[in-house]
Amino acid sequence: MGVASFSDIVQPQFQLNTYQTLDPMLRHIDRMPHLDQSTNTQEAIKYARTVMLTSQNGDRATAPNSVIVITDGVPQIPHDPREAQRLAVREADLLRQEGITVIAIGVGPQITQTVLSSLANQPPSRYTFQVNDFQQLQGILGQVASAACPSSLRLSKC
């Protein structure tokens, strides 16, 4: 698993090949700061597609890929909201064209189901989630894991 946080800019946290075991990865995630600035969703998705999901950063051709976008706000960069949304959807479309599953998780009241659905694979009932705060993410882990890696693949390749 790889993680990048985003606000005005994308801040890589670790790549797919950084951790070989779960505990150090979870400790890293626990220490990540919450970025409280604008929401550059399109650059975050583009970074996942063009940097994280490359063989030099640990992508394996034999493993299915999923990108999970967790956001607490609507796309804001560039500063025209419609253009920001269009660019974010375009980046998500590019992922899907490459066969990558896109899951969108909204945190808090600022992000709408409409925005999440425009980013995620279809149907929204399987690939979008909404929680009130970051602590509630723990409660949807099983559902997100099922969306990211179908049960038919879970034991063999995910």
Structure overview:
This protein is an alpha/beta fold and 158 residues long. The chain has one domain: 3-Layer(aba) Sandwich (Rossmann fold), CATH 3.40.50.410. 39% of the residues lie in helices and 16% in strands. Helix 2 (41-52) runs parallel beside helix 3 (81-97). The protein is globular.
Topology, please?
Elements: E1 3-6, E2 10-14, H1 22-31, H2 41-52, E3 66-71, H3 81-97, E4 101-107, H4 113-119, H5 124-127, E5 128-131, H6 141-148, H7 151-154
Parallel strand pairs: 3-4, 4-5
Antiparallel strand pairs: 1-2
Helix pairs in contact: 2-3
Helix content: 25-40%
- The SS-based structural class is alpha/beta
> What fraction of residues sit in β-strands?
15-25%
Unreliable stretches (pLDDT < 50, length at least 5) are none
CATH architecture: 3-Layer(aba) Sandwich
The N- to C-terminal Cα distance equals 10 Å
Order of helices and strands: EEHHEHEHHEHH
Shape: globular
> Which CATH top level class fits?
Alpha Beta
Question: How many runs of DSSP E, i.e. beta strands?
Answer: 5
Rg over CA atoms? 15 Å
**Within the CATH hierarchy, at the fold level, what is the topology?**
Rossmann fold
The major beta sheet can be summarized as:
3 strands, parallel
Q: How many domains, in number, for the residues?
A: 1
